Structures are given as structure tokens and as C-alpha cells.
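agent: user wants the structure for YunC family protein from Paenibacillus terreus. delegating to structure tool.
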Amino acid sequence: MIHVEPIQVGEHTFIGVEVKLPKTTLISISNDRGYIMCGALDVGLLNDRLADRKIIAARAVGVRTLKELLEAPMESVTAEAEALGIHPGLPGYEALLKMV
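agent: tool returned. relaying C-alpha cells verbatim.
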């Protein structure tokens, strides 16, 4: 099952997506510039093999809901996200605001 909902962070609206899979749920919150995601995100792959795409993304681990993802500290970030001031430890909602 896929659930999509608008997520309001300050004055900005993002898209929250939950994809229910067997024994796990993929969770992401995005806008047209970048996204934050649950632990399934492979930041190393984005930085190494897909570096030419300049993907702005950050990952949080141990989250199970969109609300938790908003509050969780980012565990790892892409090089492009780091260039915007998004760094490990930054809460999800702050990372999203830097993507506006």
C-alpha cells in the first residue's frame, strides 16, 4: 500500500510518502529539490556512483512514521546536501527547510 500526504513545514509544503512492504515501510519527504528518507536510502551510492546527478538527500535511521522522520536527526547526507548546510545531526524538518 502507498500513502501520500502533504507535509507542512513552516510556510512550505512537501510531499510525504509511505510505501508498505513486507516487514518494512519506506518513508520519504520531498520537494522538487531534494528529500529526506528512512534508513533504506543508500547515501554512499548517491555520493559515489550517482555523484554526477548532484542529488540532495539525507537519511535518518530508526524511523517508522513521517512524523518521526521530521523530528529525527539526519544520520548521513549527500555531498550536495552538505553543500547546502545539511549535516548529520540536523533534524529532518531543518534539513527540508534548507532544500527550499
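agent: one observation worth passing along. Helices lie at 43-48, 66-71, 79-83, 92-98.
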